UniProtKB/TrEMBL annotation:
It is a multi-pass membrane protein. Keywords: Membrane, Transmembrane, Transmembrane helix. PANTHER family: CATION-CHLORIDE COTRANSPORTER 1-LIKE ISOFORM X1, SOLUTE CARRIER FAMILY 12, CATION COTRANSPORTERS. The keyword Transcription does not apply. It comes from the Eukaryota. It is found in: Membrane. This is Protein ccc1. The chain crosses the membrane at residues 12-33, 45-68, 89-110, 150-169, 176-197, 270-294, 314-334, 369-390, 396-415, 436-465. Pfam families: AA_permease. Its main location: membrane.
Length: 496
């Protein structure tokens, strides 16, 4: 029986590395990254990638230490933080992470719909065409999907995905790795297209790998845009480095995908650190190389007006990238819409907060009520219809969770609790402290107002759990530290 159950579990590659890679590498890279390079320039885009990548790298180091400290059950980051810092902190950060996953599902759905409408403009019920940029005529009209089309198609896709999620997590986990194959193939087509691009390409603005383009695109070009991201001096949105941090950061999230599968891993204490760090470093390296290539292959105007430059340069056909984008985003959306209900059910099953009793599920059963609640949140965000507004919102809740992971590792390391004996030795309390502070800094860079709202929401949940919640039946890090302090005091008193 034991050998059979072990054989059914996943290893580092399929259990951690592939899910993390699939969640990290997604819609932002395909339909926003070249635009970010055009807006921030090559220099500041490199800084942006290193800045955001450092945050997730330090969080991964802290996650590796906590995950290798003992046996892990379901609940992902909630289980880790709750057992380290107590039920109040665990529930408050766990619920924030649940909201982040639910909102991320809407972000992926909108990304898939926007890509589909760009690939098949005739499918749009409403159409928006832009023929002028910065007050001057452009060589070719820019077609942008209508907000109403995004809303209508987004709601339909969300409902269909929710029906799939109701079918069970086993079916989704069986199909999910197949979504990664088109993504990797589309990446290969993009890079082949970039290196084979010539000056005489029919597409306007594609210069081929050109030192002149690289030089012209090195500096930033922050400006006003409309809601579709098209440069417009009368637009409603002004972009700067802080705003781009909020837009890009979801492209480096997804590091919790391995820990969310902890119950199905053969060796969590080895698989989570190795697989998560490998996925983080791989995607960060890919982003850095892509900044240099995108900045050298097209003009500034092309970078800012062609939101699907990845498809434009792809060889041999743009449709390969369209298919890759849609499948990768739908796969990531399924992961989010599957992970969020299971996280909420894990919080409810700990019986800490009575108000969450509706979401309890028995072992081996699917959390249907939690899935329905997640679907309502996802559809509500889809109605907003603006990917550039939803992305920073999801970012805030991810950052709250990452800050909690770093803070957990920092305090456990500093308190030197008896139960704190991680197998992962490549960590230090100073790295965790820097990671936590970096998360807070990024939150304030994106929006100090929403940062205060997010931290206030987490604090409110913490206060509510401390009043209405029940005490957890596990020994968290603080209790362990109190025990150690009492033991040392008794020994000191005995010596005296």
């Amino acid at each position: 029986m034991f050998l059979k159950s072990t054989a059914d579990k996943s290893g580092t590659l399929m259990g951690v590395f592939v899910p993390c890679l699939q969640n990290i590498l997604g819609i932002i890279y395909y339909i926003r990254f070249s635009w970010i390079v055009g807006m921030a320039g090559i220099g500041e885009s490199l800084l942006l990638v290193l800045f955001c990548g450092s945050c997730t790298f330090l969080t991964t180091v802290s996650l590796s230490a906590i995950a290798s400290n003992g046996a892990m059950k379901g609940g992902g980051p909630y289980y880790l933080i709750g057992r380290a810092l107590g039920p109040e902190v665990g529930v408050s950060i766990g619920l924030c992470f649940f909201l982040g996953n639910a909102i991320a599902g809407a972000m992926y759905v909108l990304g898939a719909v926007e890509t589909f409408l760009n690939a098949v403009p005739s499918a749009g019920i409403f159409r928006e065409t832009i023929t002028r940029v910065n007050g001057t005529d452009i060589a070719e009209p820019i077609t942008s999907p209508s907000l109403h089309d995004l809303q209508i198609y987004g709601i339909v896709v969300s409902i269909l995905l929710c029906f799939v999620v109701f079918g069970g997590v086993k079916m989704i986990n069986r199909v999910a790795p197949a979504f990664l194959v088109p993504v990797l193939f589309s990446l290969l087509c993009i890079f082949v297209g970039i290196f084979s691009a010539r000056h005489d390409r029919p597409a306007v603005g594609i210069t081929g790998l050109n030192s002149e383009s690289f030089k012209n695109n090195w500096g930033s070009a922050y400006q006003m845009t409309n809601n579709a991201g098209i440069p417009d001096p009368n637009g409603q949105i002004y972009w700067n480095f802080n705003a781009l941090v909020g837009l890009f950061f979801p492209a480096v999230t997804g590091i919790m995908a391995g820990s969310n599968r902890s119950a199905s891993l053969k060796d969590t204490q080895c698989a989570i650190p190795v697989g998560t760090l490998a996925a983080t470093l791989t995607t960060t390296g890919l982003y850095l190389v892509s900044v240099l290539l995108f900045g050298a292959v097209a003009t500034r105007d092309k970078l800012l007006t062609d939101r699907l430059l990845t498809a434009t340069v792809a060889w041999p056909f743009p449709v390969i990238v369209y298919v890759g984008i849609i499948l990768s985003t739908l796969g990531a959306a399924l992961q989010s819409l599957t992970g969020a209900p299971h996280l909420l059910a894990a919080i409810a099953n700990d019986d800490i907060l009575p108000v969450l009793n509706y979401f309890k599920v028995a072992d081996g059963h699917e959390p249907h009520v939690a899935t329905l609640f997640t679907a309502i949140i996802c559809i509500g965000c889809v109605v907003i219809g603006n990917l550039d507004l939803i992305s920073p919102t999801s970012t805030m809740f991810y950052l709250v969770c990452y800050a909690g992971v770093n803070l957990s590792c920092f305090l456990l390391d500093l308190l030197d609790a008896p139960s704190w004996r991680p197998r992962w030795k490549f960590h230090h309390w100073s790295l965790s402290l820097v990671g936590a502070l970096l998360c807070i800094v990024i939150m304030f860079l994106i929006s100090w107002v929403f940062t205060i709202v997010s931290l206030a929401l987490a604090s409110l949940i913490y206060y509510y759990v401390s009043i209405k919640g029940k005490a957890g039946d596990w020994g968290d890090g603080f209790k362990s530290a109190y025990f150690q302090l009492a033991l040392r005091s008794l020994r000191s008193l005995g010596d005296t």
